[in-house]
Each structure stands twice: as structure tokens, then as C-alpha cells.
Amino acid sequence: MSKVAIVGVVGRTNAGKSTLVNRLVGEKVSIVSPVEQTTRNTVRGIVADPRGQLVLLDTPGLHKAVGTLGTLLNRMARRSAAGTDITCVVFDASQEPQLEDVGWMQRVAKEAPDRVVFVLNKCDAKPFFSSMFREAWKEASTTPQPSPVKPVWVDCCALTDDGAKGVMDALFDFAQEGEPLFPEDVVTDYPRKLAIADTVREKFLSKLHQELPHELGVRVKEIAEGNGRWAVAVDVLVNRPSQKPIVIGRSAQTIKGARKAAEKELSEVFGVKVSLELWVKVEPNWMKNPKILEEMGYMGAVI
Q: Domain 192-295: which CATH class?
């Protein structure tokens, strides 16, 4: 019988969780961006390996919450880590330990899950603060009282297969015998609308960088299917009228570029011709609107 495990991949924002999940799965199932809070939903990536199957839950990064959306993302990250077979905490060890890193260590020490992997990502960076993370864990796991948790530490570079191999081996060492949870040809069970919305948002983030990443929302309204083609209606939400021309860009270059890049990737992923109709809409305080947040999948994941 093969091995199987559900793995909660957690850590602070921008630690490289989505990059690692994509590397382990062997396909892109999570959007990647240097912008904080890129991942806003829990994405399941399914790893098929001769040793068995791993179901990786890529969660939103823990960060200092601002507003309703930020609070929901943090809550989603914490709850997604609960009830899994293995807790995999990813740290960006190219930087000294941050407050959120120590927070995850304290949470692990307190809750004492049976199987824990600490991934020190970006081991190709110089300097690499491996010893500082180990010292931080030593302190977090002994205050106020000693914790029974003994994590497996793995140095990792999620950008390469060889760099992520140690993580895969550690996870399968912890996995137990069992029947696969998904068919062999499935790499994710992420809802189609959310996957399309994430891809569109990723393409905007790559063009807008830090201009308004946290105030940009994408909502898929309709998918019309027919003759090997999908026509997808998408709302791109901003908070203020002044943000609308930023998203559209001069001579509509930003929105055209994002649409073209998203259509290309989505067509390759789903195996059909995908055409997007993007509408930029001003929705004041959309990040505090329960109805809109529910449509985007944020509310359902935490209720």
C-alpha cells in the first residue's frame, strides 16, 4: 500500500509557500508574486509520486492584519493548519526571523502537532540565517515551558527540483500507509472560478507591482462554454475612482496586457480557448463587504 498525507503548508507572507507547492506538485496550482498577500484562498495541490500521494494545502501568508480581508486571511491560514497530518512551516531564511515567523513557532510549540517540518527556504541566498531560526525555535519551544515537538529541519531552494527534494523526502517520511484521496491525474481541486480569478489578479500584480495590490480584487461573474471555447466575464474591483485609470493604464495598455497574459495561461491550463471580458468597477470598501468576499471564496473557507 502506498503512503498518503494531508500537509498544511503555512508561514508568513512571501516566505515562498506557493513556489514550493508548485515545485512539489510539478505544475502551477498557486499564483506567485513578490507582492504580499498574493495567495488569498487555501489551494490544494496534489503530489503524485511512486511513494504515494501528498495533498498540500497552500494557505494565505500570516501577516499583520489590516481590515476585514486581512483578518479573514489570517484566520484562514491558522484554521487550514489544523486537522492536517503534517504541519509544514516555510520560513524565508534569507532574512532574520520576523515576528510572524516566531508566531508560527510559538503556535507549533503550543499545539504540539505530531509531525512537523520546518523548511528554511532560499538557502541559495547569502547570508542565510539558518542558525538564527534554530535559536528562535529553541527559545519559542522552551518558553514558558518545554514543548515535546521535535521538528525536522530542511534547507530548501524552492526554485529548483533538487532544492525542494529534501522537503519531499521529509514529507513522505512522515506520511503513513493509506489509499489515495484523489485520482492520479488530478493536480488540484481548486474551484474553476477562483483559479481564473487568481490568474487574472496575478497578471495585474505583475504589471502594477506595489501601486495598489491589496486594494485590487477580481471576481468571475460568468463562464459561458461552447465549441471548445470559454467566454469569461470578470469584474476587476478597486476602492476609489482614482484607482481605475491605474488598472486600465495609458491607452489601456495595462488591462490589455493583463488580459492577454491571463488568456494565454488559462487556455493552456484548461485546454480550451479562453477569452476574457474585463470590467474595472469601483466598489468602495469591497474588502469589508461580506457579500463580495463570499463571492470571492474568502468567507466560505472560514465559516
A: alpha beta
